Each structure stands twice: as C-alpha cells, then as structure tokens.
Amino acid sequence: MSHLEIYLDYAATAPADPAVSAAMADCLRHEFGNPSSLHAAGKRARLLVETARLSVGERVGAPSERLVFTSGATESNNLALQGVLRRSRDRRVHLVTSRIEHKSVLDVAHALEASGVAVTYVDAMADGYVLPERVIEALTPDTQLVSIMHVNNETGVIQDVAAIGKVCRERGVLFHVDAAQSVGKLPLDLAASPIDLCSLTAHKLCGPKGIGALYIAPRVTLLPQVHGGEQERGLRAGTLATHQIVGMGKAYELADPRREAPRLAALRDRLWQALAAIEGARQNGDPGRRAAHILNVTFPGVEGESLRFALRDLAVSAGSACAADSPEASHVLTGMGLSDTRAGSSLRFSVGRFTTADELLEAAAQVATAVARLRSLAKSSPAWCSA
Amino acid sequence: MEYSPAVVRHFDAPHWARELPQDTPGLVSGDAEDRTLHVWIRFQLQLIGGVVRAVGFRVFGCPHTVAAANVVAEWLEGRSVAEARGMDVRGLCAHLEVPVEKLGKLLRIEDAVAACWRTYSQGS
Q1: Which of A113, A331, A333, B113 has the fewest CB atoms in 10 Å of its CB?
Q2: What is the CATH number of the domain that holds A263?
Q3: What is the pTM of this model?
Q4: With 80 as the cut, is the pLDDT of residue A210 above it?
C-alpha cells in the first residue's frame, strides 16, 4: 500500500493485527506438526488448534465442537448450502434466499438451481432490509434451507435473523446465516439463536486470509464437499492449517464488538457528516439498522468507473470486492431499486481497527474534489446521467 | 481495470474539457449518447475560415472515454475542416489501448463530432 493511500475497505479485508501476525509467526517457527498426528509435535499442534477453536467459539457463543474450520466464509457458505441441499437426491428440495446475498451464496444457489433445486430469491426493500415476512411467505413444504446474511457486505444493513430463524425453527426448516460481515462488529450468541448454520471468516476482523469456519448446530447433518480425510469430523478433509487457525483464534480473541463497534460507528458517522456536504450525496441502506463499519453513498451525476479511478489513492469499493472485476452494477444496490447509473455512482466506505479520524477527513476532501471535477466534466449532461 | 499511461495522463488533465461560450463566432455543437454504455458526449467546434479554431467537450463516461475525447479534441484543434472530417477515432486513440469491450464508446465520440459536421453543413 502506498504511503499516500487511505484504506477504507475493511469490509473487503482488514490488515492483520500485529498480535495476530506474531501468533502466526510463532506457530510457523515452532509448531510445524500435523494436528492429526499422534506424536508429541502433532499433539502440540492439536492443542493450538483446539485453543483457537475455543476462542472462536467463545466470541460467537458456540461450543467449540460445533465449529468446523474451512478456508473462509465462501467455503463455509458452499458447505452449508450444498451440504444440506445435496443430501437427498430422491425428493424435491427448496431453498429460500435473498437477491442481495453475497456471490458466494447466490452463485451456489444458481448452481443448485441448475441441478434441480427449487430456489426462491426474496427481494429486499429500498432501504436494503429483507422483510422477515417475505422470507416466511416464501417457505413451502419442500423448503429445506433458508440462507440470509446477517449484515449486508455493501450497505451494512442488519437483517433480522432472529425473527427469520424463529419461524424456520417452528417449521422445521434449517436456517443458515452468513455472518462474514457481522462477526466482531455485532455480538453473536449462536447457541442461543435459532441459527443452524453460520459462516465465519477471519480476515475481515484483522485475522489472516484463507481461514474461516462453519458453525453447525447439533441436530444438523451435512454432506461433505471436500473428500480425502477424516479431519473436522469428516466434514472438511485436508491437513489443518495450524498457523491460519491460530491467527483466526487470536483475531477472534481481540475482536470485541462491545469495545470496537461504538468507535467504528463514531468514525463512520464522522465520515458521513463530511460527505453529506457534497451536493446530492445520499446514503444507501437504512441508517437506523446498520452495522458500525460500513457506509454506502451515491454521488449522482458522476460516472462510477471514473469516480473510482479519480480516487485511486483511496482504497474504497464500488461494492463487493468479490465482484470488483465485473462491469455489472452492484446487484445489491440495483436489488434495492437503484438504477444502474446510480448504483455505479456509489461507493462503499468501510472503517476498521486502524482507521483514524484524520484519514476520514482527508478521504472526504478527496471525494469532494473528485466529484466536483467529474461533475464539471459532465456539465449540461442529460438527466439520465444523474438518475 | 488497467489503464495505459496515456489514459492516465489525459484523464487527469483533459485540457479540452471545457465549454466554449455560446456567443463564440462559428460555434457548432453535437451530442451523442448511449445509455446502455453509460456514456454521453458533447463536442463544440469553432469553425472559422474552413479551420477548426477551438474545440471543447463535455463527457459523462469512463476514464477511457474521457481520455479518448481529449485526444480527439486535441487532434481536431487547428485542422482544416476537410482534414478534420476525415478523422479516424480508433486510429487516433490506438495508443490509449482501449479494451475491445469499450470500443463502442469511441463510436459515440465519432457520433458527437459527426453531429457537429451536420450542423456545420446545414449552416454553410
């Protein structure tokens, strides 16, 4: 990262906390054993893995034995959706999800649909909220799984997973929650929640990339998606990445939402205060129902790609980093009713542990300058350029 | 998206992105747009004595479009009308290394300039 660059893309990924890097380096230097081995080196590695599993479990309110380590939330989402819906081949199965899920859920849903699974995609409201009633209305006798993200990765809007999960449990339908954006930002108490499957990641809360976990409630059985060993109770084959797991454990130990969220919310609000001075700027997503770290703003009258290029010293996103190479407008924002043009003119700012107030003021100044310059280039342009 | 150094240069300093005053003698202008490509362009040419004396443009578009419009404007200024009418936008902008999926946007630049020539022909 250039020394001039301001990093406001914590929803895409976060820099590793120095304590995480130190724990991982220590593990790499001293504990190379395979956690599945029975000798002393293996046992020491196993102890590190299980200690980390306890830390993760403690942070999300889950018994550690209910957690399966994966390569990240994308794999966890794949394991949850495919693991449930590919179990039975002899009868109709139905999945309910929303149109504003992350690609790692939507693309799996599309693949399942292609193999015969019925899928209902529930629309979001204009404020980014998925009405629990809409999800419930979509349930059919064939519904085996509902998958709704906890916090939207583009708008930060918090979905009412408690209300949806309650009805799912009453109807005997499994409920999966992608918590990649909420863990560490909102308190989670999975064992006490009506959530059957929950995808977790490490790198969005200052942990390492390449490691995540899936919480699996006691009564849930899954069809493994990776074969080749009995690791993780046979649900996820492959040698456990001890140093990654240690890093995830340390990250979860450090990420206390009660301590961190108020600070992040104050930073986010300060940023919005500064950006709101730009004529026409408007927030996307219900500000009253939003996680602390994400702010999504539309700047009408500027072309999106040019805006992002003009702000190339500012690390912000047009939407999901996982769709950054796509020329398509954000499916989340268009799913909330924004035009392709307006969705393109939107930026996601996300703050994190190492963000400073000075950086935010500098970022807002850079955005104001870029927007003014691009609006000047497009002076006298037709109404559709702003609509 | 990767951008060539020429795109960066023209995007950061598009000197011809300006508006010529409406009372400029010999002023013709032409617009073109493609909503599906998210591009709108207006060219203004000051044509006096068979020569393009001044050029200005406005643009709503991606960095490649902004850069290409500036390249075209730079090239047009000072040309004779006869020479300017034979302009080859794709050839002029080859050094910008515009990706193939964006070539349609360059056609809109051509359309905006062509609209200027139509106005000029109607007036002369």
Answers
A1: A113
A2: 3.90.1150.10
A3: 0.92
A4: yes
